[in-house]
Structures are given as C-alpha cells and as structure tokens.
Specification:
about 425 residues, alpha+beta, 5-stranded mixed beta sheet, 6 helices, about 15% helix, globular
C-alpha cells in the first residue's frame, strides 16, 4: 500500500508539474531564455531543428527588416477581414501547373456597381453582394455558356452595361480565341450579347491579359482592352498585324477597334486616372513593369526588358555567365521606358488609386497588388507619372487577383484567390 501511495504521489506530482508547464509555459520559457547560456540555446535549437533550417530562418528575419504585414503598415494600422465566398468553383491555373501545386485557385474579379459588388469567377459564375458588409451574396444567372466561354478574364461597368472579356477554346483545344460580351445590368439575370470576337488564335492560355477599363478616346466613349504575347507568341508583340501583345481601344457605339499601343508581354492591371493610363505588366524572368501608356507608343517587348527569357535561368545553371538575350534599355531602341521595373518579379496584378479621404497618410497613393509576391505595394508617382517617388511593400500572404476602392464606404476590397475570399481593408 505504501509503495502504491508513493507511486501515486510521484504521478500526481508529475501531472501537477505538467499542468504548471502548460499553464505557465511562456513564463517558464522566458525564465529559461533569460538564464540559459547562449551556447546551450544554440545547441538545443540545432539539435531539434537543424543548423541549415535555423540559418534560413535568420536570413528571412533579416530580409524582412522594417517590413510590415497587413494590418500593420508604416504609418497607419488597418483593419483586415476575410469573407469566404461559398460555392465558388476552383480553377486550375498556370500557377498550379507551373509550381506543381495540388490545389486549385479560386480566380475571380470584382466590380463596384454603386450599390453592391459584382463578382465574376474565371469559370463564369456571377454573384452580387446586396451591400458592402458582404454577409449575403445572390447568384446571378447568365447565358455565357451559349457563347462557349472557357475562361472569364475580367469585368467592368460601362454606363448601364457589364462588359466581360473572355476566351473560347478552339475545336481541337489547341488554342483559344478572345472575345468581349456585354449585358444590361440586372441582378438576377445577365443576358450577354457578343460585342467582339477575335479571329486570331493564341496558344498561350496562361498569358492572356484581358483587362478592360472604361476610356474616352478623341471624344468617343468606349474601353481599353489588354492582350498578351508570352513565350511562343512573344514575337506577336511587335507584329502590327497581330491582335496579341497590344492595348486596344474599342468604341462602344460602333464597336470600332483602334490599336492603342504595342510591345506588351502580359498586362495584368489597368487604370485611367486624370486621363493618365497606367498599366501593370508581367515581365518574363524578372522585369514586371509599371507603364505610362500613351497612344501610338511601343513598350519594347520582346526586344527590351529588364527581365530575361526563362532560358536565361537554365543557361545560368549550365554556363554560369550567360549572355543577355533582351536589351536592357528601352530608350536606346526608341521604346518607352517603364516608370518602374521589378527585378526580381513580384507576379504583378492589378493597380488601383486610393482616394485621399481614406487616410491622410496615403494622399495621392496607388496600390499595386501581386500574385506570387502575395504583397500589396503602396506607391506614389511624381506629377508627370515618369518615376516612382516611394514604394511601401505590405505583405498579405495570399495571391491577390483584383482590387477595388469603394469611396463611399472608405474600404479597399481584394480578390484573394487561394482561399476564395474577399479581403476588406479599412482604417483602424
């Protein structure tokens, strides 16, 4: 009996000690950290985690010096919340295939209708939020299946219509055709009519461009549309007979198509602010660009880029000192220089101007989102939009496909495609 009681006491003591350790773990850990010799700490960490892993952690901690993760920023603390979009279909993207990801992204686009947010997924689903709290979404019926839409690549509101850019697969599935359709705004049923269909086909289904933005050109109302020319199609950017690697203006009344600018690789973002057109564009291996778009100008790809063809990466491993394939000057080749080029690339996506009423610390600022970078960049340009004065990276941790500023609510909304959520940013 005495032995049993003794063992019982030991067991009880161990249980109490274990509970104390759980309840006061941070206190105990703090005490140990304060009193344990440094070489002992290093030995324990290397034993459990490995020296290489600890060096990697140390590297990233130093790399992140003075950088902030949302909701923290340099001058203002934000509120951030995510609202899951239930029932949103997944879409097998180039990102999943290129990086061997098992999951699928939930790629979608945003448009503010003034009394709620319209959402369009890449697979053609449309939803409408009846308010800006995003507590309720109504599904909208469409007839896009009648147009054989394979992938939606953007939406925009133009007067009383919703315009959608999309691609249709060829009969043999070897390439896709570009199209644009429009429908009168209706929150129950969108009946789209074909506005334009291109007869040229592209094999690059991962690099499509497709951004649409309302624009008035020489007094005519319409919209700008971006198209891409990547990889095998890259030489189409400089081919004036090709539809691809360009920015086009479409007159909405006559459907007339006007070539606006050439020499683009894959423009992902587009905005018109005070009649200045800014595009954000995927570079190749490095060299994502912010461009000031001007009528009739050439932006250089695939002759000039501050990135390189992906072949360079393989050549670097093979030859150690490979030669540049692309010119590192636009100006010397009579092309337009970018306002800014990201080296390495960030996987640039959309750009949005933030009204000065959002925060006194963010006056005259633009926000640029990224996919693989999973970061929002707060940017201020000079008055001529020829250079970036400053840029603040704000890490979010998720691929951001689209962004909209809702002025009357003073909120920023984001299309987060890994979780299939709407992100909402506001000032704390």
């Amino acid at each position: 009996m005495k032995k049993f009681l003794s063992n019982y006491k030991i067991l009880l003591a161990l249980i109490i000690l274990f509970l104390i350790m759980i309840i006061n773990f941070n206190v105990i850990r703090g005490f140990v950290r304060s009193h344990m010799p440094h070489n002992y700490k290093v030995f324990i960490k290397e034993t459990f985690f490995g020296k290489e892993y600890l060096e990697e952690i140390s590297f990233y901690k130093k790399l992140g010096y003075n950088k902030f993760q949302i909701p923290k920023t340099q001058f203002v603390d934000l509120e951030f919340k995510k609202i899951s979009l239930k029932g949103l279909k997944s879409f097998k993207s180039h990102y999943n295939m290129a990086f061997n990801k098992k999951g699928k992204t939930k790629k979608f686009f945003l448009e503010d209708l003034g009394n709620g947010i319209l959402i369009a997924s890449a697979s053609g689903e449309f939803k409408f939020s009846t308010d800006y709290s995003f507590n309720k979404f109504e599904d909208i019926n469409t007839n896009l299946s009648e147009l054989n839409v394979f992938q939606v690549v953007d939406i925009t509101k133009l007067e009383n219509d919703i315009f959608v850019s999309f691609v249709v697969k060829s009969e043999n599935d070897e390439c896709v055709f570009f199209g644009v359709a429009n429908a009168n705004i209706n929150k129950e049923n969108l009946l789209f009519n074909l506005f334009y269909k291109e007869n040229q086909c592209t094999q690059e289904t991962n690099g499509l461009g497709g951004r649409i933005y309302p624009y008035i050109f020489k007094g005519k109302k319409g919209f700008l549309l971006t198209t891409a020319a990547t990889d095998k199609m890259k030489n189409k950017s400089q081919d004036l007979e090709s539809f691809f690697g360009k920015i086009w203006f479409f007159e909405s009344a006559t459907k007339k198509k006007i070539l606006f600018s050439v020499g683009h690789r894959n423009p992902q973002g587009l905005i018109v602010s005070d009649n200045i057109i800014i595009s954000t564009e995927h570079g190749p291996y490095g060299g994502d660009e912010i461009n000031n778009i001007k009528f009739g100008k050439n932006y250089g790809y695939p002759i000039s880029s501050y990135g390189e063809l992906y072949k360079f990466k393989k050549d670097k491993e093979k030859f150690k000192v490979p030669k540049y394939q692309l010119s590192k000057s636009h100006l010397e080749n009579n092309f337009e220089e970018p306002i800014f080029a990201f080296v390495p690339s960030i996987g640039i996506s959309e750009i949005e101007r933030i009204s000065n009423d959002f925060s006194e610390y963010w006056n005259d600022n633009f926000l640029i989102t990224s996919l693989n970078g999973r970061t929002i960049f707060r940017v201020k340009f000079d008055e001529e939009f020829e250079k970036v004065i400053y840029m603040e990276p704000m890490y979010l941790g998720e691929r951001i496909r689209d962004i909209k500023y809702i002025k009357n609510k003073k909120i920023i909304i984001l299309a987060l495609e890994e979780s299939g959520s709407i992100g909402v940013l506001s000032v704390n």
